Amino acid sequence: MPYVLVSTQIRLETGPTMVGDVYSDPAIMNYLGARKTTMLGNNFSEYHVDEPPRLVLDKLEKIGFRMVTMTGPERGEDR
Asked: For the sheet containing 35-37, what is the strand order?
């Protein structure tokens, strides 16, 4: 099974969510309802959905994907 990268900006945990790049499986991107976008100044495209990452992961689980790992910012002791 292929890997899918799911990412969002730190302050946008409600979406949009980046779900792929130009090499992503078009059938999976279609299933997620992703749109291919190229940001001004970038020479590459990404697929995005409006849903938050949690809903994207729920959809992917329904077709057999599972989360392998995750990461996020560390919370400092001084916060």
From this structure: 17-21, 46-49, 35-37
Q: How far is CA 36 from CA 21, 22, 44, 68, in A?
A: 8, 8, 10, 24
Pairing mode, strands 46-49 and 17-21: antiparallel
Structure tokens at 20: 């792929």
Whole-model pTM above 0.90? no
Per-residue pLDDT tens listing for the chain (79 residues): 677 777 777 665 677 888 998 899 999 999 999 999 887 787 888 999 999 888 999 999 999 988 887 777 666 655 5
Query: Which helix or strand (DSSP H or E) is residue 59 part of?
Result: helix 53-62
Q: Tokens 């989360």: give the residue.
A: 67
CA 31 to chain centre: 13
